[in-house]
Amino acid sequence: MNANRFTMALITSLWFASLICRGDAPCRVYVIGDSTAAAYPEERRPLAGWAEELQEHFDPARVIVEDKARSGRSSKSFLEEGAWAPIRDALKPGDFVFIQFGHNDSKKEDPKRFTEPDTTYKQFLTTYVNDTRAKGSVPVLLTSINRYRWDENDKLVDTMGAYPDAARALAKELDVPLIDLHQRTRKLYESLGPQGTRSLFLFLAKGESPNYPDGKEDGTHLREEGARAVSKLVVEAIQDLKLPLANAIKK
Question: Which fold has domain 3-246?
């Protein structure tokens, strides 16, 4: 599909969404991705994914968030394990698919998950985009959130390699809206500093949580405070991009 056809597909799907998100039937936002976005049961709290907090920002009569992210998945394994097919088949004109992978794509030791940023990673993301557009729905690419990693000078360390740039490049190539969570979380963390950012992640002292009696030191996964903070960044990006979803954000 050439650039002009991609642009027409985007315009058509956004037009559908602008009608449905304002009308009687709610549009759906399907989130596909990894553990940083996934939903978790009570026995794993305070672990939380940002997408499970997203519904709180929207009028449920107009937007329903379907958090379909799965822990441990990459753009490759999510597709090849069959997680994508039922979502694809359920899509309707005017729905949205938020696509965020990268953390597990970088695992070179696991061929079932590993993708190369500029080749296979972009190819799998393109499959999600094309499948979504074929159903008259709107794909949105998201870069991965930053991990909690700081150097000895309290400067944030980027652990995501070439994957964020690959997603940015693909968004331009395919005329896909991009929510750059990698950039937005960097700004958030740097504004909070190492100590303030620590409260967003799953760092628990021994005895602090009955679900983690021995404590936890996890600089990749969010706790509930972090999930709420990142979901707010997503909502701000929706408003900045002027996506039709912005019409349904709670005042």
Answer: Rossmann fold (3.40.50)
User: Which is catalytic among the residues 56, 81, 217, 225?
Assistant: 217
Of 13, 35, 77, 231, the catalytic one is 35
Q: Any idea where the domains of the chain sit in the sequence?
A: 3-246
Q: Which residues pair with 67 in a beta bridge?
A: 31
Q: What is the pLDDT of residues 35-89, one digit of tens each?
A: 999 999 999 999 999 999 999 999 999 999 999 999 999 999 999 999 999 999 9
Q: For this structure, is 75 an active site residue?
A: no
